[in-house]
Amino acid sequence: MNQTIEELHELLKEKKITSQELVQESLKKSHEVQEKYNAFVTILDEAKATEITDNPLSGIPFGIKDNYSTKDILSTGSSNTLKDYIPIFTATAVEKLLNAGAIPVNKTVLDEFGMGGTGTSGHTGIVLNPWDPTRMCAGSSAGSACAVASGVYPYALGSDTGDSIRKPAAYCGIVGYKPTYGMISRYGVFPFASSLDHCGVLTRSVADAAIVVDNMKGIDPQDMTSWDSKDLHLYEHVKDDVKGLHCCYIKELCNIESYPNPTEELKSHLENFKNKLELCKELGIEIEEVSVDSALLEALPSVYVAISCAEATSNMSNLTGLIFGPRGEGNNVFEMMMNHRTHGFSPLIKRRFVIGSYILQKENQERYFKNAQRVRRLLVDTWKKLFETYDAVILPVGTGPAKHLDGDKDILSHDTEVLEEHLQIGNFGGFPSITLPDGFINNLPVALNITGNCYNDETVLKIAYALESKMNYKNQIAKEGK
Amino acid sequence: MKFTSELVDDLAAKLLIGLSKEENQMVLDEFNIIDENLSKVENIENIKNVTPMTHCLDDFTFTLRGDETTESITVEDALRNCKKTEGREVEVPKVVGGDN
Questions:
Q1: How high is the pLDDT of residue B100?
Q2: Chain B residues 66-85 with a CB less than 8 Å from chain A
Q3: Which of A45, A110, A139, A160 shows a CA-CA span of 20 to 30 A to A202?
Q4: ipTM strictly over 0.90?
């Protein structure tokens, strides 16, 4: 299980290992990881081997974030409001993997309904970082990141509304890829903010990410925002030459002078990032520094909160506890719903819903919701303008390695740094975006991100693959106190 | 805008959500930050002339499904996760009239 999909497929085809052996190893590892890091809501001990075909995913175990519906398998969204919910259908993305012969072995913990960035708000408890259990995995795809980094399997599914695949991948030293919006059907994935929600995958190599998304993508009549991507062949082009491509980084985010009181971690992180830009140049990629409007960047975190909370509030109105989920107590339906929601939701998502409700009140829509959507367009237009000149934007992820569990409370504060939040622009524009490990600070992994224009997933992946090939972090397995 | 804990409780009540004192304060604190940040947005030149962006892909063409009968779920499946049912229906306390 410490190997890539490419390697495992070869071993399976040559009959050096069997699918059954992989399943048993993955389940054994799942229980160990659960004991140490609390990464799973459900471990599927009855998982069975599948036939080995030409599909590279056949016979190989994987994990499913617990906001993907899985027929006859508990699917909670890591919320008490769905703690006993068993779907009657399977999400399209999962169905496609099952058809490819892939084997789900567990459902992974997330921040409740994906609405958090710490991996601490799931109803089954906090997910610990496998590099250092005093630190967070980030979220919301915390369990998936933890499990892939721990070597439970080569990949797990994630969803990404702000940075929920890409930030946990960074904190856990692995690859996190969200393709262009709508490339993967969202049918059967619990919605958070529909205009920002993306499906994607966490892996330990860029090529593996390409293989998995090749198998997940495709137009789906059940998701009217999905589109036909049959002409995109991610794995086929992942090793293509990158010489002559143009990339840029944003001065306001990457220069240490932008930060009045930088920590040593931030200094090291940005210095390490700049060193990796030199590797890009060695690959023949032209790198340029560009400048964008600081006022737009500074508005980003609040704009994201405004849009995501408003959409979340609309999406969660069906959580009543009457038709599914545990029933609340009360003498009438209103008391029952009040009881269900008050005791079912964690404080963090209650806050999201209340903020969303305020923003959606008729008298507030213009000032908050519409203005947030206007800034969204300005930011996306700024990035689209960059993509007229550059094939991708390369930026560091976050302000350094994984944060301590007793630090970040996942709430906006005056000192929220745009550097922590800039991946949200990828969701605003639906841009293909991949995070990959680019070094270590204090024995903890750090990462960079590559984002390109919509539909240019092949370009984004080949840049990531080329850069990964110049570094030593491909397929790394987490070790405590490395 | 002056945000108060009463306003927060009122918004929560509209959503049928009860908040503790701490939860109320948490929302209140964040309201102030969002308000302050989005106030700055109003200073961006010509912001009112920008068309709000409601979805990711501007070039997207929605394809409606054909008006054809497709596979449906059974009543038993639809009620499978419901805790209280009566025949083909979800059972809840009486909504109109009566003591409850």
A1: 46
A2: 73, 77-78, 80-84
A3: A45
A4: yes
